[in-house]
Predict the structure.
Amino acid sequence: MIRYLRLWRQFVITAFVREAEYRMNFVIGVGEGLAQLALAVISFLLLYRFTDQVAGWTQAEVLILVGVYRIVEGLINLQIAPNMQAISGYIRHGEMDFMLLRPVSSQFLVSLRTLALPEGVNVLIGLLLVIYAGGAAGVRWSAVGVLAAVAFGLCGLLMLYALWLFMVTFAFWLVQIENLDTFFYSLFETARYPVTFFKDLLRALLTFAFPVAFATTFPAQALRGQADLRLLPVGFVLAAGLLLGTHLFWNFAVRHYSSASS
């Protein structure tokens, strides 16, 4: 465990050094995040221009969810996305061969090797929006609500990571998988809306099949004191099952990998 922590610390230091060399890239990344957040907020302001509630959500409550979505999206883009998008390149160019020779888990290396530090600022912006919108919605902040929101969000984040890694693992057999990344982001876009906005079948799919509800809707409800806490153990079981299944599938793919040079 200590070896893995030291290795991850090395990844973080490398990311800071890289961003120090390309400061303008950092500024552009933050600006892009702010623009995306502004567009999301404006779209909901227009939606609530002629109504006070949509599917039981007020404008301020939806803005809480937008903030949670920005936090989760920022965390995904901070470390999960840049690594998932690089896996097919590692395999095509032979870099995966060297990763498999390292005395650490190859899944650990491909999952945490790269960080996009500008997204850390966007996570902070999302947190500030949650605090502001929570005040506007009259949220009574409590330790139980915050802990439940964090637990739901962590379950959702782990499940989304597991599903994305499962999809990109097919790169060991497929030449081009870029469309899978697009497919993931297209589905993740639904997380910016409460799942109660959708019909029953789609709501169930977004809760249990592609569980964005655990990432955004349930945390927002927990902060409002309206979450069904019975779903929290379900989230833990789903996250553990998906992580285990993805890990086994990754190991299966590695065992059948013949290397780029063979």
In short: Strands lie at 53-54, 57-58.
